[in-house]
Amino acid sequence: MLKEERLQIILKMLETNQRVTSLELSQILNVSDDTIRRDLNELDQNGLLLKVHGGAIPKSSTPYKLKERVNFAHEEKVILAQKSLEFFKDGQVIILDNGSTNMEVAKVIPLDMKLTIFTNSIPVAQILSEHPSVELFLLGGKVFKDAQTTYGHDVIEVLGQIRADLCLLGICSIHPEIGLTIPDYEECQSKRKMVEVSQKVIALVTADKIGTAENFVVCKYKDLDIMLTDGALYETLPAEYRGKGVEIK
């Protein structure tokens, strides 16, 4: 069997099963462990999967550039935004992380709700700048143009001076063992600080993020307080996500 055929089979198995092990690949493809290791390394380096101990799992299929993500799974994001309002109360200090889902959250905050919101998202700040009752702080730092977000030392320093009631965390991938992950190291550091300084952390999760992982870990899955899903995902969520101290709604 040619290498290109093996790689396609590996990716097809991963798409179907959401995880492959080196042992099963070696047996099914009738090649050595070393060959499988090289194949997985190549696919990992090309960004087609994430190599983990004993095998591989998928990477997120969500586009990374914000302008490409805005209309991706838009209906689900609107549902999640509406559900998030259950946790908002007058007088709270909230960290609203970057991301297209949190843009939808910013749009639905009631106009009479008095909140103090810190955000690293330029589009979220633009939306909330029209809100009459929100005291708004845009975290200043280096601008990550693709994601339209700020990050870096200045962002982390300001976050260190906050004790937030609530953080709505933007994520690329969520895995019950690996945790919440994203593909950019520097942005990861800002998100880790958000988790650290918040009393309650909520992830708004669309189906495409489930069972996938990127290279940089924001936090462990159990560090979440709440995972919000839409109705369809709630019904089909794998059992591995349940019973780990995270409230799923």
Automatic annotation (TrEMBL):
HTH deoR-type domain residues are 3-58
- Kindly give the PROSITE patterns that the UniProt entry links to this protein: HTH_DEOR_1 (PS00894), HTH_DEOR_2 (PS51000)
Pfam families for this protein: DeoRC, HTH_DeoR
Tell whether Transcription regulation is among the UniProt keywords.
yes
Bilayer-spanning residue ranges? none
One MF annotation (Gene Ontology) recorded for this entry: DNA binding
- Cross-referenced SUPFAM superfamilies, in alphabetical order? NagB/RpiA/CoA transferase-like, Winged helix' DNA-binding domain
Tell me if Transcription is a UniProt keyword of this record: yes
**SMART domains attached to this UniProt entry:** DeoRC, HTH_DEOR
The signal peptide here is none
Record key words, sorted: DNA-binding, Repressor, Transcription, Transcription regulation
Which InterPro entries does this UniProt record tie to the protein? Carb_Metab_HTH_regulators, DeoR-like_C, DeoR_HTH, NagB/RpiA_transferase-like, Tscrpt_reg_HTH_DeoR_CS, WH-like_DNA-bd_sf, WH_DNA-bd_sf
Q: What is the protein name for this chain?
A: DNA-binding transcriptional regulator of sugar metabolism, DeoR/GlpR family
What is the native source organism of this protein? Pseudarcicella hirudinis
Lineage runs: Bacteria, Pseudomonadati, Bacteroidota, Cytophagia, Cytophagales
